[in-house]
Structures are given as C-alpha cells and as structure tokens.
Specification:
Elements lengths: L15 H20 L11 E6 L5 H12 L3 E6 L11 H11 L3 E6 L4 H8 L3 E7 L5 H15 L6 E5 L6 H12 L3 E5 L15 E3 L2 H5 L4 E4 L15 H8 L3 H4 L7 E3 L12 H4 L7 H20 L5
Parallel strand pairs: 1-2, 1-3, 3-4, 5-6, 5-8, 6-7, 8-9
Length: 309
C-alpha cells in the first residue's frame, strides 16, 4: 500500500484500499446529505480556500458546499481580481497563502503540475481540482461512487470512455482509478482525439462507437474541449455528433441496462443527445453532481485529520 499522503494531487499512486476507504466515507456523507443532516463540527475552526485559476461551476461550488457542511470557514479567491492577475508568481501566491494559515487549499489550474508545486510550498493540505490535461482526482472518485451505488462493485465492469480523451484530465483520472479497481476500460473516439500512448494505461482503443460500446456496462461521455485544441482535430459539430455523439441508436450497442455518464458541462447535440442525457432511468448525470459534494466532503474530512489519505 502506498504511504499516506497529506495531499490529494492525483489518482495515480493511490492503492485500491485507499480508494475504497474514500468511497466508503463518501457513501456515508451521501446518506447524511440525503437525510438533511450536517456535521458542522468536523471542520469547525478550519479554513478552506478555493483557488481557481480556471472557470468552474460544479467543482468550485461543490467544494464550497462540502466545506460549509462540515463547518469550515470557506474563502473563494477570485483570481481575476487577485494579485495573480497582476503578475504575481505562483510561488509568491504560495507565500501569501502560508501567511494566511489556511488548513485546506483546493486548486484548479490550466497548467499541469501547478497544484503539486503549491503542495511543496504551502503548509496546507492541497487538493487538485483539475490541472491542465493531467488529472482531476475528485471527479474520478465521484464517478466511481456513482457507479458503485448502482452496480454494487466496480470490479468486472466494462466502461467505455468516449470522446475527447486527448485533452481530458477527467478521462485520465477515471482510467487510472477504474483500471486499479478491476474494470475493463475502453476509450472510444476519432484517432485525432486519442493519445498514442494511452494503451500503456491498460485500456483498449476503438475508433468506432459500435465496437467500443458493444457489451458496455457504463458509457461515459466527455466534453469536446475546443479551447484546448488546435484546428483540424475534429470536423463540424454536426459530423462529430453523427459519428461519436451518444444517441439512442449508438446506446443500443451497449448492454440493455447500460448507464450513461458525463462530467459536465455538456454540449447537447455534440457529445450527447438531450433525450439520452435526461433519461430518468439510464442517465446518472444529475447524480454525479450530487455525489460530487459527498466525495469532496470525504476528501476534506480525511485530509483534515492529519494522518493523510
């Protein structure tokens, strides 16, 4: 088993036992949240700072809600109006944060490795809320929790991750977690959006939705990240949807009870059809958002105890 870490910077390096422990703790918080109760004594007197260098709605809001439900003092730092936007370096920001004596620091950054650099320089426990195209560990944990709640266990499931794998930190974290937990993982998409070395992570590659979705238990769609792309990687949105967007016809290739996921935000009619995204039986997309709060409560709780993950 990997040694305990006082930060959560990546899924890579976590042992399945550590993942299971986090999922078990998150499950208890999911039940607590649905009961309408809170545990405001868990992080009472602790300070949580959300430092987001990239825009976010779901992740930042769920970390804020998670911290408040546990009783933490939560501060959202607006990078657009902060000293960072005026030219302050990341290391100067770290020194400033240390002077504030915060306990937990949630970081989203457009450069891979930025949260890891901060973790070396600050006294707070650092949680990676997404860095470049590297990882997004809490998204993978919430996806795993959502799947586990519906399928009982992860081992043995066939999961198809479809779309813009090349630019997706969500895909990378999910692949690492699901493979570690015994899933058979496929990546599906056009050759231009599938990294050449992706098979080294233990996945199979498919460039046709029929083959990629055949017999799948879980179909996980990814957002087409045009802001990270160079020109020419995909045809028009209409053509992309025709070949790789999830509609009823393509979903029929998967198992009859296959479940659909998407980390959001969704581009309806590009990656996924609205009637599939909103299907009350097959779609887990809304539940993913709900489980995000529970997972982030579990991570904040575990790291605040001082023993690490």
């Amino acid at each position: 088993m990997q040694p305990a870490s006082r930060h959560l910077l990546a899924i890579q390096g976590l042992h399945p036992r550590q993942i299971t422990a986090l999922l078990d703790l998150a499950e208890s918080y999911a039940l607590l949240n649905r009961s309408g109760k809170t545990q405001r004594d868990r992080l009472r007197g602790r300070t949580l700072i959300n430092l987001f260098f990239e825009d976010s709605t779901r992740t930042r809001t769920s970390f804020e809600l998670a911290g408040k439900r546990l009783g933490a003092d939560v501060i959202n730092m607006s990078v657009a109006t902060s000293s960072v936007n005026k030219g302050e370096t990341l290391l100067d920001t770290a020194a400033t944060l240390n002077a504030m004596h915060c306990d937990l620091l949630v970081v989203r950054h457009d450069q891979s490795g930025a949260p890891a650099l901060l973790a070396q320089k600050v006294d707070a426990a650092v949680i990676n809320a997404g860095d470049g195209t590297h990882e997004h560990p809490t998204q993978a944990l919430l996806d795993a929790l959502t799947i586990r709640r519906h399928r009982g266990e992860l081992a043995g499931l066939v999961v198809a991750i479809c779309g813009d794998v090349a630019h997706s930190r969500v895909a990378r974290s999910n692949i690492l977690l699901l493979v570690a937990m015994g899933c058979s993982v496929r990546v599906v998409g056009p050759p231009t959006l599938i990294p050449g070395a992706i098979t080294a992570l233990g996945v199979s590659v498919h460039h046709d939705m029929r083959a990629g979705l055949a017999g799948a238990d879980i179909v996980m769609m990814l957002r087409l990240q045009r802001e990270r792309m160079t020109r020419g990687l995909v045809p028009s949105a209409r053509e992309y949807f025709r070949f790789f967007g999830l509609d009823r016809d393509k979903l029929a290739y998967a198992k009859p009870d296959a479940l659909v996921m998407h980390p959001g935000p969704m581009n309806r009619g590009v990656e996924i059809a609205s009637d599939v995204a909103d299907d009350p039986v097959r779609s887990l997309i809304r539940e993913q958002v709900e489980m995000g709060v529970a997972v982030r409560m579990a991570v904040l709780d575990a790291l605040s105890r001082g023993g690490g993950l």
